[in-house]
Design brief:
This protein is α/β, with parallel strands linked by helices. The protein is 37% helix and 15% strand. It folds into 2 domains: 88-114 and 217-399, Rossmann fold (3-Layer(aba) Sandwich), CATH 3.40.50; 117-212, Rossmann fold (3-Layer(aba) Sandwich), CATH 3.40.50. α3 packs parallel to α4 and α10 crosses α11. Bound molecules: ligand F0G. Ligand F0G binds next to α3, α7 and α11.
Length: 419
């Protein structure tokens, strides 16, 4: 295996700021990181990555949470609400039932606003402050808007969020609303919202904090670093595979970057990089289509539908970063039905872990790949669950048991319990 996106030990270009710069993944052009606002390459419109002259080793990490990994980030501290340091749960019954050597659940729903987005926002909003912008914006299927609203308000900035009308779970809208975002409900899907917000950002109306923003992915790298440190502590080995839900493929890209940087720093052998395995809902699976067809590019799906509304996305903007990540780590991508997602949500709940539907896709995908023999029984696997159960109370109630009305006296309750 060779990680094609990895370069040799990087050398800082003249426009680097304190050993940090932006680099186009397509043409290699470099840009000063904090002088002007830019999200893609000026020359070829390719995606940008943050690069560092000095890559950290595990010994450089100290403290807890996202900022434990400051040595792998562009700043030493951010606009923080104590994000990261999420649990890596054991799930012995599920592990046995699915039939893998080890299964651990990295529950990102345990972040301050209930999803992994907080890790990206603590860095992204810090960069916004550095750039001196005062209005932040995102398109969102819900979680990004909740995190942006919380971190923006903590950073003293105005926030604007564009949501697909009628397709965002109740908990997420409530969060964005209470944290004071202006919520624009768009008569279109997430991809249409992102098209609009990109145009607003290009016009200087607001600073874009979708995962197209390379600084957000820096914060999300810390999911991969935490998983590796957790496995090394417990098993003295990194996981064979990490299974995660895919929408815009930001996390897939971020984890791949975290691992490439460890390989470059000599901290991880190329052959030990966990196989990145992406899961999408059948009704919104353009990445799976591209992986199955061996395609270089993802074709946008105009019509998408799934009960996992967080990943109801037809145009995964980070695909140019994520496709090599899946392929070069020896991973794969798989689509699962909404029914399988709900079953997996119940399976996790049966181990005490409450997640929203998109999160359960990881476990549904692992089960499917194991049953097809693509995942071996001797594998050590981490599944990422990206958002908390309470994000989508309607989906949880629909998947769970019905409340039973009883009369307001003990005899009536006892009689009811006999039935
Ligand atoms: N899981 C959850 C719960 C999410 O909210 C998202 C993305 C994903 C998975 C997919 O992650 O984009 O990195 O592949 N939610 C975005 C939002 C789109 O607006 O909240 P990805």
């Amino acid at each position: 295996m060779s990680l094609s996106l990895s370069t040799n030990q990087p050398r800082a270009p003249d426009n680097a700021d304190d050993g940090v710069w932006l680099e186009c993944i397509d043409c290699g052009d470099t840009f000063a990181p904090f002088e002007d606002v830019r999200y893609t390459c000026d020359d070829c419109d390719g995606l940008l990555e943050v690069r560092y002259a000095d890559l950290p080793t595990f010994d450089d990490f100290e403290g807890q949470g996202v900022w434990r990994y400051a040595a792998a980030l562009p700043f030493d501290a951010g606009v923080s609400i104590q994000e990261g340091a999420t649990p890596l749960y054991e799930v012995p019954r599920l592990e046995d039932d699915i039939g893998v050597e080890t299964l651990r659940i990295k529950h990102e729903g345990m972040n301050p606003t209930g999803s992994f987005k907080d890790r990206g926002m603590t860095v992204g909003v810090r960069v916004a402050a550095e750039l001196g912008v005062d209005r932040l914006a995102c398109a969102s299927t819900g979680n990004t808007s909740a995190a942006l609203a919380a971190y923006g308000s903590r950073g003293g900035m105005e926030t604007l969020v564009l949501l697909p009308a009628g397709k965002v779970a109740a908990g997420k809208i409530a969060q964005a609303s209470l944290h004071g975002a202006r919520i624009l409900e768009v008569d279109g899907n997430f991809d249409a919202c992102l098209d609009i917000v990109q145009e607003l950002a290009a016009g200087g109306e607001a600073y874009l904090l979708n995962s197209l923003n390379p600084f957000r992915l820096e914060g999300q790298k810390t999911i991969g670093l935490e998983i590796l440190e957790g496995f090394l502590a417990d098993y003295d080995a990194v996981p064979d595979r990490i299974v995660l839900p895919v929408g815009n493929a930001g996390n897939t890209s971020a984890l791949y970057k975290a691992f490439r940087e460890l390989v470059q720093a000599g901290e991880l052998a190329e052959g030990d990089v966990p196989k990145l395995t992406g899961v999408q809902a059948e009704g919104a699976a353009p990445m799976v289509e591209a992986i199955e067809n061996g395609a270089d590019e993802v074709q946008r799906w105009d019509d998408v539908e799934t009960r996992a509304t967080a990943i109801r996305i037809g145009n995964p903007v980070n695909a140019p970063k994520a496709l090599p990540g899946i392929r070069e780590t020896g991973g794969t991508a798989v689509a699962v039905s909404d029914e399988a997602i709900t079953d997996a949500q119940r399976d996790l709940a049966g181990e005490g872990i409450g997640v929203e539907p998109a999160s359960a896709a990881s476990v549904a995908g692992l089960r499917k790949l194991r049953s097809e023999g693509i995942v071996d029984d001797d594998e050590r696997v981490a599944c990422l669950t990206t958002g908390h159960l309470l994000k989508d109370p309607d989906a949880a109630a629909a998947a769970g048991r019905e409340p039973e009305p009883v009369s307001a006296d003990t005899a009536g309750v006892l009689e009811h319990l006999q039935n």
